[in-house]
Design a protein that fits this description.
Blueprint lengths: L10 E3 L15 H14 L3 E3 L8 H10 L8 E6 L11 H13 L4 E6 L7 H11 L3 E7 L3 H12 L7 E5 L6 H4 L2 H8 L2 E5 L22 H6 L3 H18 L5 H9 L3 E5 L3 H10 L6 H14 L13
Parallel strand pairs: 1-2, 1-8, 2-3, 3-4, 4-5, 5-6, 6-7, 7-8
GO cellular component, one term: cytosol
Protein name: Aldo/keto reductase
GO molecular function: oxidoreductase activity
Length: about 325
């Protein structure tokens, strides 16, 4: 049975905590503990992670912190990643859940996702026993298109279960979950849509430009550095809107995502990013500001679909 818990307007992502090279550099538990503490103080207690983020590293670090606070003080969003499945396991979904739960120090997950549709719908079927066991509060699908979502929904419905959450890459630069009808489907079915990479891993934060590029040794540097000259116009618009609201530029794409009816996942590695996220949850943008951002972003015509994703159609 789905747990009745109050979810914040924003989830905090621990992808970078996995130190898998995506973001460049490395982070320690000592670096991240102040981030965790600041988030819990702000009421941002929904943590999104996955075993795939550093092959358990993200979960291990987050788990260290979670063990120091009561279980009812936080919410966990974790994922089954098909590419990391144990081929020798009787049920690979259950096996990965158990591994993740042990690393995090929990017995239940508030949201548990099928990370991507590789091998779908096999994994949806293998999730059913776990869902019926009561160890999952909500069932989620990530990086699935509308046809794949409907297929999974039919399988689950036949078992008296339902999809409660969809998580896709959604930002000013990638609105394919909007144009494909996924957002409308979620609204119709009462499904929460989680928007990840709303800041395009920092490219829409106002922190990076041609004079201040991403770390050259990072995956995001390889992707976004070549587009920074084009993004400067959009980032200038974000700064102008931010100045009008007396907030940081990085808060605007987050507030935009909330205004679109989604629950954004914001990656945090610094205390100021937590405070920005908390502020963005309270920010109200005008309809004209949203339209202006949409139009300008559409003019960019930039392809930010990553290697593990597809355009939603």
């Amino acid at each position: 049975m789905e747990q009745k818990k109050i979810f914040p307007k924003i989830a905090l992502g621990a992808w970078a905590w996995g130190n898998d090279g995506t973001f460049g550099g490395s982070l320690t538990a000592a670096d991240l503990r102040p981030v965790f503490d600041a988030a819990m103080k702000e009421g941002l207690n929904l943590w999104d992670t996955a075993y795939a983020y550093g092959m358990g590293t993200s979960e291990k670090v987050l788990g260290e912190f979670l063990r120091t606070v009561p279980r009812d003080s936080y919410l966990i969003s974790d994922k089954f990643t098909p590419q990391c499945a144990d081929p020798g396991a009787e049920n690979a979904v259950t096996a990965m859940f158990d591994t993740s739960a042990a690393l995090l120090g929990v017995e239940t997950m508030d949201v548990y996702w099928i990370h991507n549709p590789v091998g779908a719908p096999e994994w949806t079927r293998k999730l059913i026993p776990l869902a019926k066991s009561g160890k999952i509060g909500q069932i989620g699908l990530s990086n699935h298109n509308l046809a794949e979502i409907k297929e999974a929904a039919a399988i689950l419905e036949a078992e008296g279960l339902k999809i409660s959450a969809i998580q896709n890459h959604y930002s000013l630069l990638n609105r394919s979950s909007e144009t494909s009808g996924i957002l409308d489907y979620c609204k119709e079915k009462g499904i929460t849509f989680y928007a990840y990479m709303v800041l395009e891993q920092g490219a829409l934060s106002g922190k990076y430009d041609t004079a201040h590029p991403f770390p050259a040794d990072s995956d995001r540097g390889a992707v976004y550095n070549p587009m920074l000259s084009k993004l400067e116009k959009l980032n200038a618009c974000l700064k102008e809107i931010a100045d009008a609201h007396d907030v940081a530029a990085a808060q605007i794409p987050v507030a935009w995502a909330i205004a679109k009816g989604t629950l954004p996942i914001i990656g945090v590695t610094k205390v100021y990013q937590v405070k920005d996220a908390a502020g963005a949850a309270k920010l109200a943008l005008s309809e004209n500001e949203i339209i202006r951002m949409d139009r300008l972003a559409d003019e960019m015509k930039l392809d930010v679909i990553r290697y593990w994703e597809k355009e939603m159609k």
